[in-house]
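Colleagues,

For the teaching module next term, I've prepared a clean inverse folding example: a structure given as tokens, and then the sequence designed for it. I'd like students to try predicting residues themselves before seeing the answer, so please don't circulate the second half yet.
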């Protein structure tokens, strides 16, 4: 896995999905996997161009950070399918490949659900989320 500066890193990876109809959902309403299965898959940079400033990068909660430290893990990575509706709201987040730490996967999905985008075509992409945890330093 590539090295990092001890901060969460977002890397984007595309997954080919059959294209199809698009839709919109009321703000805060998530869609089922079946509902977004036919939405077109776009290159990650297409959605990245629509993302609002000030989004929270996915990071583990303090509780999850403690679990990561207890398990002796420093580097985690998982892939998540992100679907954005025509109004710019996140319609679905699905774990494509787990980070290996279920609590971190939950944290990532929660952060991604809070993202907002400029309105546009409903679409999905797959994101690779990487996290490197700092080692505790003696004082």
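(Answer key — instructors only)
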């Amino acid at each position: 896995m590539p090295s990092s500066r001890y901060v969460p890193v977002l890397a984007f990876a595309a997954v080919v999905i059959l294209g199809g109809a698009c839709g919109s959902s009321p703000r805060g309403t998530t869609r089922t996997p079946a509902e977004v299965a036919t939405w077109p898959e776009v290159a990650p940079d297409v959605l990245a161009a629509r993302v609002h400033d000030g989004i929270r990068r996915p990071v583990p909660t303090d509780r999850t950070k403690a679990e990561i430290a207890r398990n002796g893990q420093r580097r985690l990575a998982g892939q998540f399918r992100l679907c954005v509706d025509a109004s710019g709201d996140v319609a679905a987040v699905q774990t494509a490949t787990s980070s290996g730490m279920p609590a971190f996967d939950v944290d990532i999905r929660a952060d991604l659900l809070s993202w907002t985008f400029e309105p546009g075509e409903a679409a999905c992409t797959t994101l690779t989320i990487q996290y490197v945890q700092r080692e505790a330093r003696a004082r």
